[in-house]
Amino acid sequence: MKQRRLSRGSAQTGFTLIELLVVMVLIGVIAGLATLAIGDGADRELRQEAQRLAGVLQLAHDELLITGGADRALGLRKEGYSMLDLVLLDDATREWQALQDPQLGPHYFTEGVVELEYETDGARQSLSQTDSWKPHVRLSNTGELTPGLIVLRVPGKDLVQYLSISLEGSIEVSNERP
């Protein structure tokens, strides 16, 4: 029997079909995972903002219950929100002022990405467009909150998150109107 030997110069080079298929499958899996991870940035930011607002409200509520401090309020604007303290300016004058705090202080949304609306007793309330803060959700040191519905939406899209606030102090975030 004769054995055929290939000379060094005539050796076959290249990839087999199986090697090419494995590489293509890996590229497809990585591309799929990247697409899922990136997703719609507006939807993710809306959910994060709704969770952040619920967390801020819950933090302020819990802090008030623990310390027994003075009443606070959540002030809303179309472009952001802040926890408010009632400040005595003199014997006859009181004013709600935004807390200057990294967690509870003023928080503004990225312009054009998220907007707020507020509903109480089934009616939509107007939100301030001025520099002063108006209280919308009052927090009592007894644990009660002003009931209402905060609506976070992405302008021009059907992306909405609802923050439902009950009198007894429960705060729930959902993507469906309660």
Automatic annotation (TrEMBL):
PROSITE patterns: PROKAR_NTER_METHYL. Pfam families: N_methyl. SUPFAM superfamilies: Pili subunits. Signal peptide: none annotated. It is a single-pass membrane protein. Keywords: Membrane, Methylation, Transmembrane, Transmembrane helix. The chain crosses the membrane at residues 20-39. Gene3D superfamilies: minor pseudopilin epsh domain. Its main location: membrane. It is found in: Membrane. This is Type II secretion system protein GspH. It comes from Pseudomonas neustonica. The lineage of its organism: Bacteria, Pseudomonadati, Pseudomonadota, Gammaproteobacteria, Pseudomonadales. The gene is gspH.
